[in-house]
Specification:
globular; single chain; mainly alpha; 257 residues
Length: 257
């Protein structure tokens, strides 16, 4: 990381912030623009992000720097923070009433699921228990899962789809609810992390930003200081090829990512 970290640790948050935002402005904008297309929305969210990151002498950033060990690169952490602030901004602006209108044309059961999962942010299991308790007739869990999948498809369509997917609570994908084994999932995650650690730091950052954060090759090139999008693609696909071979040796498949 750059000199801004030393300035922050040495008690100069103003200078640290100037250097920080100069370095990461492109990444912050790219993350916001993944969710917002309207220029005014982008600028309003950018102002909110800057306010949140600069607050209390960059307290959030210092909390990352002060960790004895980091499970994610700083750029990956920053993208996650900006994404969460962006989602909170849209939730605050749109409010529950405006979001709930998206479900107006859904069948009754899907409307109930949408309200429980996207508006009340209940887990899938909690939503099932609540809806089945209020249902005048028995609701089989298999039927609920089928309607849950259709609700996700309907909510994810259109320009609000990206926002709504992230408004849902952290949970298993609908297709995995009835088959996931927590111990197996933890082991799979550990082995994927092991495979990722075999990559050089910049290659791992490129893969994480491309696969996990869904940034474009041009955006990744700007973030990592590469010549252009083609250079980013070359680095990403070489790294993915190495990663696939290492994963195969560990008994993992593409679906484990």
């Amino acid at each position: 990381m750059a000199d801004w970290t030393d300035e922050l640790r040495n008690g100069s948050p103003g200078r640290a912030w100037d250097d920080f935002i100069k370095r990461y402005r492109a990444l912050v904008f790219a993350t916001i623009q993944h969710y917002a297309r309207d220029y005014d929305d982008v600028m309003d969210v950018f102002a909110r992000v800057c306010e949140a990151l600069r607050a209390d002498d960059m307290r959030r950033v210092r909390s990352y720097l002060d960790q004895p060990e980091h499970t994610a690169r700083f750029t990956t952490w920053l993208v996650a923070v900006v994404r969460n602030i962006t989602i909170d901004w849209f939730r605050s602006r749109d409010g529950r009433r405006r979001l709930s209108t998206i479900a107006d044309d859904m069948p009754t059961l899907r409307k109930q699921i949408f309200n429980a999962v996207f508006i009340q942010r209940r887990s899938h299991v909690e939503a099932y228990e609540l809806i089945s308790a209020l249902s005048p007739k028995p609701l089989a869990f298999r039927e609920f899962l089928a309607e849950l999948r259709e609700t996700y498809r309907a909510a994810s369509a259109g320009r609000r789809g990206t926002i709504l997917r992230d408004l849902a609570p952290p949970d298993l994908a609908p297709d995995e609810l009835d088959s996931a084994d927590p111990a197996e999932s933890d082991e799979r995650t550990r082995r994927v992390e092991e495979a990722l650690r075999t990559l050089p730091p910049q290659d791992r950052a490129a893969v994480e930003l491309y696969v996990l954060e869904d940034l474009s090759a041009a955006e990744i090139a700007r973030v990592l200081g590469l010549r252009n999008a083609k250079a980013a693609y070359n680095r990403i696909y070489r790294a993915l090829d190495v990663l696939r071979r290492h994963m195969a040796a560990l008994g993992l498949t593409r679906s484990d990512l």
